[in-house]
Amino acid sequence: MSIEVRGVTKKYGDFVALDDVSVSIPTGQLTALLGPSGGGKSTLLRIIAGLEVADGGTVEIEGTDATALPPQRRNVGFVFQHYAAFKHMTVAKNVAFGLEIRKRPKAEVKAKVHELLELVHLEQFADRLPSQLSGGQRQRMALARALAVEPSVLLLDEPFGALDAKVRKELRDWLRRLHDEVHVTTVFVTHDQEEALEVADEIVVINGGRIEQVGSPDDLYDAPANDFVMGFLGEVTVLDGHLIRPHDVVVHTLPAAAGAGAVRGEVVRITRVGFEVRVAVRPEAAPEADEVVVTLTRTFARSLGLEVGSTVWLEPEDGARVVPVPRAVPVGTLGAADPTEPSEVPVA
Amino acid sequence: MADSRLIRSRRGPVTYVLRVLVVLYLFLLVAWPVSLVADRAFRATGTHEGGVGPFLERLTDPATVYAFNLTITVAIWAVIANTVFGVGISLLLVRYRFVGRRVLSVLVDLPLSVSPVVVGLALVLAYSSTQGWFGGTLETIGIQVIFSTPGLILATAFVSLPLVVREVVPVLEEIGTDAEQAARSLGANGRQVFRRITLPSIKWAVVYGVVLTSARSLGEFGAVKIVSSGAEFRGETATLFVHNHYQAFDEPAAYAAALVLVLISIIALVVVTYLRPKEERA
Ligand SMILES: Nc1ncnc2c1ncn2[C@@H]1O[C@H](COP(=O)(O)OP(=O)(O)OP(=O)(O)O)[C@@H](O)[C@H]1O
Ligand SMILES: [Mg+2]
Known about the structure:
heterodimer; A: Rossmann fold; elongated; B: mainly alpha; 13 helices; binds adenosine-5'-triphosphate; membrane (chain B); MetI-like_sf (chain B); transport (chain B); ABC-type sulfate transporter activity (chain B)
């Protein structure tokens, strides 16, 4: 294990930002710290980097106890959400900073800077100032700057958070490829579950200062440990008192085909979103409760001949993951649930 | 940045009336009296000759040279002290949270609101060898504060204390700590972070503060008047020189020195105006 966090607690006044957090980050992997805003992701990352001091617990990096080490002696690369560019230095000088601090020979610094700028595709911008770069370019510069000192771990705090969706997606793929090339142990913070699922080898879900679950993207998606993880990693709907993914609900138009436990309901809305169709069904047994949302492919929906007002029978697909509904759950009707503001929908 | 929201686009009669009033006000209060000083510096009066030659002669008189030398010495030390402490205090105020931080912030502003005469009196109370708390102690080790150059420096530094701090604090607040933390994580220690990251970012604010401090130091009168014996060749600064010669009916010498002080201020203003846009671009 490259990073071992044991029993870390951090308080701001009375507020507990991290509550006895323990987690192991595997060597050479790309790990995502995923969670809602205010969950404590940045705090944990900054404690690992030494930019924040924990109230209790230990941090071990590459086998050495780093708890009391100042940031400059931890050999970590840190990339900030808002680039933290050195505005008065050129791109090349920014990247060279860590090497110059370490008093490396000039020729070596030059060669290394060139190599890194090539790696992040900024060769032609070496002599520009950060203010003359786009957001994405600035972030790549920050990444090159952090990589220059050959850190044992690379920590990225919402590296693409300040960028627009398209650039974000590009950089995300690029980060994945970069990681496959350089293989440095990397931890990145995100509150975008799609980003985490797509890029990470391992995901640590953190919420309210606690770790909810650690696992591979598939583990987390298919076998969420609790309702929070399930709700945070993808869209959920409530069927018969259980949380279930909308694409795991089977729709029957005839009672004969449905099993004994199927829920009978009426189609109240059909929305087409690109390649899929979302069908909202009001269960007959509990008409005042929230609607069940089912997603189907467009062809399948058409073959069923669904219309608003038709009666359908719903049941979970074989092997579908369901989680009992707690008191208040984040229920997504369109798009992924946003657990930062759980909607207090009463559930029958 | 020129913010168009701050500029009225429509020009009604009110705009013109305002303009005339402002120009008139500035003229009557500043431009006209100051131009009279320039005029007087070169004009012949009574037994005194006018023109450039006598003007230069008055400025090269040993007493005048002494006064300006003293003023410049005092100003340089006051500027050095206030730059070093100003940057230090600014860092303390912005980057650290401690008990009494607000009190410190208010204390830094105090010299702006306290009359310089009061500052002078306070310094005499604290440092004079006869009645001061530790003026006596200092005198036994050979340092006389009041009625000598250290006292002048102290008084000048006191009145110009806030100028660097008030320039640097907002810039420090604006740049935030991200870059400094990034530098730390890249291996820089505290000194390296300050020299390579913080200082370059606040450079223009410091320069601006230094210019303001210099201008203020050269022109200080009230506090200096109290802590200096004020006699020719013995603690007579340029402003005291102007005052003394004016009182002694040697008006041409007073006007000549006054004009030099005005010119220095104007140069300082020009430098500042030239620096301003640079600072905003940075
Ligand atoms: N310096 C501070 N003083 C007081 N409270 C703080 C401080 N820094 C963070 N917090 C609190 O600690 C909690 C966790 O903050 P943290 O920055 O780790 O959240 P996060 O998970 O990174 O959220 P985001 O996705 O919005 O960045 C938040 O509730 C925040 O208000
Ligand atoms: Mg954060």
